[in-house]
Amino acid sequence: MQELIAARMRNVKPSFVREVLKAAGRSDLISFAGGLPAPELFDVEGLREATLAVFDGNAAPALQYGPTDGNAELRAALAALTNERGANAQPDEIVVTTGSQQGIDLVARAVLDPGDIVLLERPTYLAAVQVFELAQAELVGVEGDEQGIDPDELERVVEELAARGRKPKMLYVVATFANPSGSTLPEARRRRVLEIAVKHGLLVLEDDPYSELRFTGEPVTPMIGLARDIDGASELTAYMSSLSKVIAPGLRIGWMVLPEWLHSRVVITKQASDLHASTLAQHTALNYLRSGRLPGHIDRIREAYRERAEAMMASLERHLPEGVLTYRRPEGGMFLWASMAEGVDTMALVEKAVASGVIYVPGIPFYSGNAPTHHMRLSFVTVTPEVIDEGVRRFASAVLD
Questions:
Q1: pTM surpassing 0.90?
Q2: Which domains, ranges and CATH numbers included, belong to the chain?
């Protein structure tokens, strides 16, 4: 029956992390694998009140079909949330999505033709890679460092492609607390990336699910906020974010801020996809945002994640000899990007780690094209400091055995 499968599906691989999470469900396994918010930190009472409030008055709008771009009042609330980060978003620029993952897919389907070039930081969010592969795009990696994508390398890659008669159409970037590397692009680099985008007519798709999870250091203005200072940049900058990491992923509420030329096309694409995000979820999210509980809730998350990040770094120092593993100290987000000595295959090491009762995600799936084998992503958010220490002890036994 394989001949019945569309050609675009034949080489698309399942998400490595989703497959890993199946194993991570074992009760005897400590998981540093998934980027899942800590469930014990969910504001269950606040969400209960927000849900019940939907039915206290006229519940019909929450149970009926709604506009494709989302509930108008929610779009206004999401615009305000975006603007608190330093942007200048208007409600009519926003499209409410079924999680920010859908936003990547909608833009890909609205913009990309088979064979179009998408530029990606190396390493990058692997579910975005999956979307762009499904769109039959050609993926070209751009090297970065501990501060994120390197603008000089970006320009070199774009000019090298131009010399071959090729022009990339899109750059996808997680500028703040990147998944998996945890890096944050400094403001000067963000401005330079936008200038390069204008020079070469490149759409910049900024994915920002983690910026509220900063537990040290100073916030950096999102690229959509900086774009207004650079002639032509606002028309080439799209922004997406999500309530999944700060409220609950089960709501499946994300949003995009889009330039006018792209907004209408994305709305049409979404109409063909799911008509609109869940109206019940949208009304629940709106009630929660109106409740005033979000700032305090985020403060609690930040403090817990800071404590867990510190616990993981302390445990790595305690259980592994110096030089065996290096890592980037995160200022926020959900992940610690770590590296073994070159030549160590962290993909092969997973089997030993699982046998020792702990699991992580190797670095290879986060790269398009050739990938170094010695990196790994460790998530510190879904386990308590005590469990983190035991998990790192198990990991060390697998490494040192």
A1: yes
A2: 2-43+296-400 (3.90.1150.10), 61-291 (3.40.640.10)
